[in-house]
Specification:
With 140 residues, this protein is of the alpha+beta class. The chain has one domain: Yope Regulator, Chain: A (2-Layer Sandwich), CATH 3.30.1460.10. It has 3 helices and 5 strands, in the order αβββαββα. Strands 1-2-3-5-4 form a 5-stranded antiparallel beta sheet. The protein is globular and about 40 Å long.
């Protein structure tokens, strides 16, 4: 199976009975690979680390980029456990392993770019209200 081969290649934990595999990434986050049936794999990765500040400007940028997959290379932005994540569905029906690897590499490059952008948005002064600020206005 593609997922098991890729996870082994990346040095992660092989998919368990639940179809989930995890691979630690150099930026401190992780890539989650979820196998659904024989032909579909979902890739997901958080864009910030737990506990990082989440300014409203970050959420605005992610939602704006979700529109027509702008700057996401076919993936979409979502929320998992309160953290912004990038998610990509891959149909394996007519895909070779090499094509699959290229798709995953593109996803990881996109994650890396967004992790950098999110870090910049969350750590620069004057970046707008924080989610933890109860007076924050969500009317951007």
């Amino acid at each position: 199976m593609f997922a098991a081969d890729l996870v082994t290649e990346l040095g992660g934990e092989l998919p368990g009975n639940d179809g989930h595999a995890w691979v630690g990434l150099n930026n401190g986050t992780a890539l989650e690979i979820t196998v659904l049936g024989a032909t579909t794999i979902y890739l997901s990765s958080p864009l910030v680390l737990p506990g990082e500040p989440l300014p409203a400007s970050l959420w605005y940028q992610l939602l704006e980029s979700n529109y027509f997959w702008k700057d996401a290379r076919g993936a979409v932005f979502a929320v998992d456990a309160g953290l912004p994540v990038l998610v990509r569905s891959i149909d394996l029906t007519n895909l070779s392993y090499d094509q699959f690897r290229v798709t995953v590499e593109q996803f990881l490059n996109t994650v890396a770019a967004w992790v950098g952008a999110c870090h910049k948005l969350t750590h620069e002064p004057g970046d707008g209200p924080r989610l933890s600020d109860p007076t924050a206005s969500w009317m951007l």
